[in-house]
Design a protein that fits this description.
- With 103 residues, the chain is mostly helical.
- It is 82% helix and 0% strand.
Length: 103
């Protein structure tokens, strides 16, 4: 029982860090290429989050049961990805205010 709990906590920590870094990197690159500050955050919220929920959706359950069936680990990964996308926009905005023209 202890290994399962410890493994779940370890998965949550490592998975959230990976999602945060992944979406920070993708958002940073998109910000440099497209020159939009908050596009990666909106893209994450409009496209990636619904696709993630759709993949976990079970057709034999009702809407409320599906929402309740989302695990804490799933929610942590979604929130960590959104934080990474937000941090990429924030860092690009800080670099632009600092005078870096390439961003």
């Amino acid at each position: 029982m202890t290994g399962g709990i410890l493994g779940g906590i370890l998965f949550g920590i490592v998975g959230s860090l990976l999602c945060l870094v992944l979406f920070f990197g993708i958002g940073f690159i998109l910000n440099m290429l497209i020159k939009t500050t908050w596009f990666p955050l909106w893209m994450f919220l409009i496209i990636v989050t619904p696709l993630g929920i759709w993949q976990l959706w079970q057709s034999d359950l009702s809407v409320t049961e599906n929402i309740q069936s989302l695990l804490v680990s799933d929610t942590i990964l979604i929130v960590a990805g959104a934080i990474g996308a937000y941090l990429s926009g924030w860092s690009i905005r800080a670099l632009r205010r600092g005078g870096y023209k390439m961003f």
